[in-house]
Design goal:
The protein has about 375 residues and is of the alpha+beta class. It has helices at about 1-5, 35-40, 65-115, 130-180, 185-215, 225-245, 265-280, 325-330, 340-350; strands at about 10-15, 20-25, 40-45, 50-55, 220-225, 250-255, 260-265, 285-295, 300-305, 355-360, 365-370. The protein has 3 domains: about 10-55; about 65-215, Helix Hairpins; about 220-375, Heat Shock Protein 90. The radius of gyration is 47 Å and the shape is elongated. The structure holds adenosine-5'-triphosphate and magnesium ion.
Amino acid sequence: MGWGRTGLERVILADSNSFVVADTYGLRLGERLSEQELAQGTAIIVNGQRVGTLWLTTTTPPGVLSQEDLFTRSVTVAIILAGIAVLILAGLAGFFLARRIAGPLSKLTKAVHRLAAGGWEQRLVLTGDEEIVQLVTAFNDMAARLEKYETMRRNLVADVAHELRTPLTVLRGQLESLQAGALEAKPEVIMSLHDEILRLSRLVHDLQELSLAEAKKLPLHQETFNLVEAVQKVLNFFQVEAEGKNITLTLNAEGQEIQVKGDRDRLTQVLINLLGNALRYTPPQGQVGVTIKEKSGEVSVSVADTGPGIAAADLPYVFERFYRPDKSRSRAQGGAGLGLAIAKGFVEAHGGRIWVESQPGQGTRFTFTIPVSRYNSSS
Ligand code: ATP
Ligand code: MG
């Protein structure tokens, strides 16, 4: 009987007169089963005579829960409980996550405000999630860059003032001596005055070109021309200077003709700046070679020398304006430190790249590339 309550079926037993004598639910005792119910049951036959009926049924009386109902109900309860548990967990996780992110973010926001107000030295040290660490690293990089640019901006003004002062002092001194009669207006004196004026104008012109290039506003007079021929002309121009220093100057080109599209004067200027440096910094008996190569849609021009090379520490900065690793030496040789900055500006204005490779004591190689023009290009 107990099995009936917890098991799958309801069991009803009726006697030979169809009266219920046993019911696992105990509800129909004494009642008579209908013909239909008897038909559903199993007859109990003893010695060929029907002595009773056993009826296994799943129908449950009103108010008593069936197995399916019990199952559905327990599943529903479990789902609701699980839902509540998940909600509570998600809420807690959200709260802690928000606290972990909001804390560093508010620190970052403050640092950004201080940076915007001119506090260039702002750097943050924050530990936490990978994303936060990445954000902080990006912020620190940006701050370092801004600080560098700010320093460069300040230095630029100081450098320009410094570069202008030297020729102006010479001019002023000589003019005052002329006025006082201490110096005669001989042709050499006039020539030296003229030299200083030329130096000044070149400096101002260089600065102007550089600022135009850096602002990406350099007007380019584009034409298609033979680069090999243009390089050869510059080499011829430098040949006398090279011979004077006993330096071998060679050209290594893959052919007689490589057509490029660009501003011929400015690209020539790039080569003049690179070759000028190579000849200036390479000691006598050295070698300077120019190599032109065409490869995968671009042409590269290298200027290699056997000079003193550039220290690894200075390499990243040589293209910056007014940067001279050895100021006293370069000053004695007359450089302002603008040549490479201008070369870089001009090459980049043509959509090209420029870089340097150098081994101290072995030599230096500057290379720049520019896109090759299509031979059938329209302009
Ligand atoms: P400017 O070109 O304005 O007359 P500069 O030659 O000093 O002056 P850059 O041409 O910009 O300036 O060169 C920057 C510095 O890089 C030079 O002062 C020099 O120290 C170094 N440098 C450039 N080219 C070479 C080279 N071929 N070999 C060794 N050092 C070089
Ligand atoms: Mg130079």
